[in-house]
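Spend some time on the protein that follows and explain the fold to me:
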Amino acid sequence: MSGANANNSTNIKDVIVLVAAAFIGIPLLIFFIVKLFTGNVSNSTMTDQEVLARIQPVGLSKASEGGPPGSRNGKAVYEAVCASCHGAGLAGAPKFADSAAWAPRISQGLETLVKHAVGGFKGMPAKGGAADLTDDEVARAVAFMGNASGGKFEEPKPATSGATAGKVDLAAKGKEIYESTCVACHGTGAAGAPKFGDKAAWTPRLKAGLDSLIASATQGKGAMPPKGGFAGSDEEFKAAVSYMANAAK
């Protein structure tokens, strides 16, 4: 009998242990599952490279907000794009208003800094990853950041208003839009896009006239999305198509 009682006592203890483990383990399991699916992970564990990967734009960047392409000032571009890295000094980016970090860069001059920012430099992608920025907008952002750390740069000003100035601006805008958006495919002829400057590839497309080509490109054709993914006005996109067409004549 004593053996049976001992066995019963052991069985009861085992049951108690299992019940206790269930009460403790199930909530913990639920907690970890919630953490897994909500992605509630502390940013303090992320490396600079992981942060850069996370902030890479998908499609159009926030630079497309706040005004038509070419119109945004340095402060607006900094807040929409550059602050992601320069605000905290991630991945070697000189931190905003850090005079010691910016001094050797300011000494290189605005032209060199803009060249690096437009083309990409070390861990920074071209135009900070915002392909919809114009070169002038990048220059304004660089000037704004440099001036916050003691620089004396002048931000490039938007074109003067007026009918004549507007036409000149659109002509220059076509080149800017090509270099920031269209070059991704037309620069190399990727996905069947007629390569920039390739007269043989552009001639059959221009037979129906420039207006017909612009209408087709605006709506999207084949692998090309409407306006090639460009978020600006139809008039600006027309200037980009005209710029590419003229380069193949």
Notes: The radius of gyration is 29 Å.
